[in-house]
Amino acid sequence: VGQRSYARHMLLVRADNPDAIPAIVRDVVRGLDPRQPVERIVAADEALRAMYAREYFIGRLVVGFALLGLALAGTGTFGVLSHAARRRSREVAIRIAVGASPRQVTRLLVRRILPFALLGSAAGVVGGAGLGRVLGALLHGVSPADPVSLALAALTLAATGVASAWWPIRQAVRADPATALRAEG
């Protein structure tokens, strides 16, 4: 007993009333060849979603891992800067005790941190560009070395570094200078 094989064909139909399409298509196909089956009638947006489901999933997965990596980088930066701010609490206390304003001390600390944030984001962009070449097959419509994407990544990483430094610096500047000097003295 042989199996009957049917060639698969796709027919795209555009209509003002999409609800009427299934009945019309079946009638037209039966009129042309009554033996020709009409298996499924699917809307174009549903067919496109099904065709690109894998790419959408991979894209969402990559974005999820990127956000997770950014959160881990921010958490690590926060931890390192919290530790550095605690170690500098005596210096901050002395600066405030001799008359520096909290705003001046904050600017000084941010200027000391910013080069490291920029260096870290530059290293991240170089690593991302290298990894982009490896994952280039997953990129659609974007070059692995796209300057706009790399610039946005660098700005995001630098902003994450500065934002994660904000709380430890704020805590160090708001601490009572006398208490900080007694604690370390």
Mean pLDDT: 79
Please indicate the percent range of residues in DSSP E strands (runs of 2 or more): under 5%
SS field, number of helical segments: 7
Overall structural class, as computed from helix and strand content, comes to mainly alpha
Instruction: Please give the alpha-carbon distance between the first and last residues.
Output: 95 Å
Shape: rod-shaped
Order of helices and strands: HHHHHHH
Uncertain regions: pLDDT < 50 for 5+ in a row?
none
The total count of strands amounts to: 0
> Which value, in Å, is the CA radius of gyration?
30 Å
Largest sheet: none
Helix percent reads over 70%
Provide an overview of this structure.
With 185 residues, the chain is mostly helical. It is built from 7 helices and no strands. Helix 3 (53-87) runs parallel beside helix 6. The relative contact order is 0.12.
Can you give me a brief rundown of this structure?
The chain has 185 residues and is mostly helical. It has 7 helices and no strands. It is rod-shaped.
SSE inventory with pairings:
Elements: H1 21-32, H2 44-51, H3 53-87, H4 89-97, H5 102-134, H6 147-174, H7 177-184
Helix pairs in contact: 3-6, 4-7, 5-6
